[in-house]
Amino acid sequence: MRKKILIQFIIVISFSNIFFAQQDLINSKDHPLISRYPGSYIVFYDEQEYNQYSIATGPVSGYKTISDWIDIEGKFTRIYYELSGNITITQIFSNYLKTMEKSGFKFLAKGINKDRNISKEVGGGSWLGIFYNKNNYPTNSNILLGAGSASVGGTCYIAGKLLNGSKTTYVIIGGKEYSQHKKIYMIDIIEETKMKDDLILINADNMLNALKTTGKIALYSIFFDFDNANLKSESTSTIKEIASLLKNDINLNLYVVGHSDMNGKLEYNMNLSQQRATSVVNELIKKYGINANRLSAYGVGPLSPVSTNQTDEGRKLNRRVELVAR
After folding, report:
1. What is the number of other CB atoms lying within 10 angstroms of the CB of residue 263?
2. What is the pLDDT of residues 18-40, one digit of tens each?
3. Do residues 255 and 215 make contact, with C-beta atoms less than 8 angstroms apart?
């Protein structure tokens, strides 16, 4: 029964796509799972085969802080819509809420503030600012969720989870009354998968050869928890090989350099890449007994890319730890 309802929703909305497609951003489209409020048009569209995402599920708990998050990863689609006319943010919120409920979504969080606000509750104005600061969008995207106007109004948020056999899909909607006659909302869809990393583990001999010939080596098998500098257990083999490298050549000293892609703010990426490089250095010192004087940690964020930041594969190559002979 739930499946039938979902299909009916898609058919109804698909009809509206035909009518409003001429206003959409070139090469954009509605997601087949959940679509636009009739009359809306697409201003921003992004699709990535893999991305990490954080769903906020609780209120603001401190200065620019939300404590309750669910971290997920998978195929990512982001569609930002604008809607002109006298439709209210409440109508948009209520219609999506009812459609998702009928389609079998489990709600992880939801909230609406019908009037202009800086509420710290789920879906409030200040709350949305913190949420999208973590799940950021490009500054040149024309997305107005963080902007205001003289007649700015209420805001809303819905986060839902849909189970369909072995497949799990998340839909997150944030909306805002940008002005009396313009409503805006963004739909993020994450089709949950785990990243497959087929990059070859490099051993101590490979590292030494690269350091002697090019002065550096990029490592893609050092992994961290999402949005922080905690080393994951999958990194152990590579860290052991770095330790072996240093023990085999007692005259070798290294810069350990953290790199990121260009998603997010520069200052944030610079700090995170520095913290991640420091985590690697600390692991080598504390767990493997490497002399601290032989290691220096630095973070350069997105400032030294090895590939484009316009594709998922390119961003993946830019997220790395490099060893540089010093």
Report:
1. 19
2. 344 448 999 999 999 998 999 99
3. no
